[in-house]
Amino acid sequence: MTASPSTGRLREQRAWYVYDWANSAFLTTTLTVLLGPYLTVLAKRDACPGQDTDLACRTDLSVLGVPIAPGSLSLYVVTFATLTSALLLPLVGALADRTGRKRTMLGGFAWVGAAAGASMVFLTGDNWELGVVLQLIATLAFACSIVVYDSLLIDVAGPDERDRVSSRGWATGYVGGTVLLVVNLLTVSQHEAIGLSTEEAVRLNLLVAGLWWGGFTIIPFLRLQDRPPAQPLPPGRGELVRASFGQLLDTLRHLRGYPQTLAFLIAYLVFNDGIQTVIYASSIYAQEQLGLDSDQLILAILIVQFVAIGGALSFGRVAARIGAYRTVLGSLFLWCAVIGVGYFLPYGQFLPFAALAALIGLTLGGTQALSRSLYSHLIPRGREAEYFSLYAACERGTSWLGTLAFGLTFQLTGSYRWAIIILIGFFVIGALLLSRVNVRKGITQAGNPVPAVI
């Protein structure tokens, strides 16, 4: 019996959720918790052979003739990857629209990234060079897959379903990340009981995270459908690339006609840069500056994961009273307080860092959820997919200045405490830019109904 359209769409939505389950676990385990600190250990071991990796290493590495502090290496890799993404991701989104092969592209990017992630099991000794290559491949493939994944929301859910479907996907990702983090925590904390060293336990978790990402991607690859592109496919590969760039340029030109939407997007890029740097650099800060162990880092991220769900719901209730705009603006000043508290955390004490992790989770879930919903009101009618892809590309691909500033500050001062203070500037500038956005005017210009509470 042939499934009804509604049944088929529900099946696709469930498959779409599974990809969030797959990639969020990799994002949390590898890119957020384990890889940065572990790559730092490998770099310090090469720069300062024979020295305990828990101690500060003052000898620089030479990367293509450029002196790099071991503690800044992973941050610079992220910076380079996100700079590259800023150029690559909009083209990936345009190609996905033009070819209509989103399902195929999603699987391809995911499996390339998963292979790189699983290969991190071979990072031993002082082989940081391989770690850099694998981190670059995994980060770029992850970012490309997310742009395609986000754009699939338009295909699997109708306009009235998107809030619900998007929220369920977000929640599914948090659950997936939490489940794998529990496995990571047990593996690292009980490494001696299962006959592994701490580093072997970390490498095993990196392997499992890559396999998790690649394995669960099979479900959306099999159950999602490729759809014909909205515009005819031009003949020839060169024509396809030129047409994709043309679509991107057309979207950017169109965006200039909506100054409030553009102003919001610029403000978002600034404060989101600070948020993404906090997410990535917190594990390095905890290990290198506060002297916390891998199992403590994992437990802290688990706290962030759990609290972020409640944070999104709590901020949503606040927004229902005072509006999403004021709530997001207020959250940016709360971020400044979070960073200020982080500066004064004592060395070797987990409980203060756990409390900070809870505060990060509370602020993180609310800021990200409400920023996305606020932006959705500013998207012009009839061009939702284009603007949604642009937002996703900006979110994933332009967060580079924060990690660069963080890494440079550490290289110049030798202290991660001064590095996190630098991040306050991103939230202050982002708040100032956001305060200049006339949201009501922007919603009207976009041709959308103005909510009762903005």
Describe what you observe in this structure.
Residues 260-454 form the Major facilitator superfamily (MFS) profile domain. GO terms for molecular function: transmembrane transporter activity. One of its GO terms (cellular component) is plasma membrane. The chain crosses the membrane at residues 21-39, 73-92, 130-149, 170-189, 201-222, 262-285, 297-315, 327-345, 351-375, 416-434. The protein is mostly helical and 454 residues long. The protein has a single domain (10-445), classed as Growth Hormone, Chain: A. It contains 16 helices and 2 strands. The protein has a two-stranded antiparallel sheet with strand order 1-2. β1 (61-63) and β2 (66-68) form a beta hairpin. α1 (5-47) runs antiparallel to α6, α2 runs antiparallel to α13 (401-413) and α13 (401-413) runs antiparallel to α14 (416-422). 50% of the residues are buried. Residues 1-5 have low confidence and may be disordered.
